[in-house]
Amino acid sequence: MAEQRRTLLIVWHSQTGGTRQMAEAARAGAASESGCATRLLHASETGPQDVLAADGYLFCTPENLAAMSGQLKDFFDRCYYPALGRIEGRPYASLVCAGSDGAGTARQVARIATGWRLKSVAEPLIVCTHAQTPETIQAPKTLAAADLAQCRALGEALATGLALGIY
């Protein structure tokens, strides 16, 4: 009997490119695991069927006014009740591209994941850009290679854990 390939769903939103870079780096890391398929979907294009079809999740958001982005919140609003009671115990992690500290944003994602009864398998990975002026906050972001390497490692760890049946 052939072993079933597991699926990691990476849901992201980005306004200035930082979170997109983080999500793409995580996908690149996950792609190194042949036993796990990876789906990278923008939050606006992700629906309940995508959540239900996945075995694990990586939620990626910028910090907007100390909160998750509206697009990621919209994703959760549209998918929360259709998936409620149907995905308990599945693993998840989160990536936050922050201007200040990202902790409030990470807590918001964790609260929703707790409601879904998901299993956190890593601390939130927060990359802080230190953007504090209107100009730097709205400017396109280019993240450091070291930060993207951490995102890549998290994606690889999630995919490997799914493929090996650890989660």
Query: Counting H and I runs of at least 4 residues, what is the number of helices?
Result: 6
Based on helices, strands and strand pairing, what is the structural class?
alpha/beta
Q: Provide the low-confidence segments as ranges.
A: none
Strand segment tally: 6
User: What's the N-to-C terminus distance?
Assistant: 21 Å
Domain tally: 1
Briefly say what this structure is:
The chain is α/β, with parallel strands linked by helices and 167 residues long. Helix content is 43%, strand content 21%.
Features:
alpha/beta, Rossmann fold, 167 residues
Give a description of the structure.
With 167 residues, this protein is α/β, with parallel strands linked by helices. It has one domain: Flavodoxin domain (Rossmann fold, 3-Layer(aba) Sandwich), CATH 3.40.50. Helix content is 43%, strand content 21%. It has six helices and six strands. Strands 1, 2, 3, 4, 5 and 6 form a six-stranded parallel β-sheet that branches. Helix 4 links the parallel strand 4 (91-98) and strand 5 (119-120). The mean pLDDT is 96.
List the helices and strands and how they pair.
Elements: E1 6-12, H1 18-31, E2 36-42, H2 48-53, E3 56-62, H3 70-83, E4 91-98, H4 103-115, E5 119-120, E6 125-128, H5 134-138, H6 145-164
Helix pairs in contact: 1-6
